[in-house]
Amino acid sequence: MSAEFPTRPEVFHEAARFAIVASEYNRNYVDGLVRFATDELKTIAPQARISFARVPGSFEIPLAVQAVAKCQKPDAILAFGLLFDGETLHASLIASAVTQALLAISLKESVPVLHEILVAKTEEQATARCLSPEINRGTEAARAAIRVVLALRQILQGG
Question: pTM score > 0.85 for this model?
Answer without folding.
Answer: yes
